[in-house]
Amino acid sequence: MADSLERIARDVIRCERCPRLRSYCEEVARVRRRAFRDETYWGRPVPAFGDPEARIVLVGLAPAAHGANRTGRMFTGDDSGNWLYAALYREGLASQPTSVSRDDGLTLTGAFITATCRCAPPDNKPTPEERHACSEYLDRELDRLPEVRVVVALGKIGWDTVLERSRRVDPARFPKPRPKFGHGAETKVAVRPGAAPVTLLASYHPSRQNTNTGVLTRDMLQAVMRRARALASPRRGR
Question: Considering only CA atoms, which of 41, 231, 60 is closest in space to residue 154?
Answer without folding.
Answer: 60
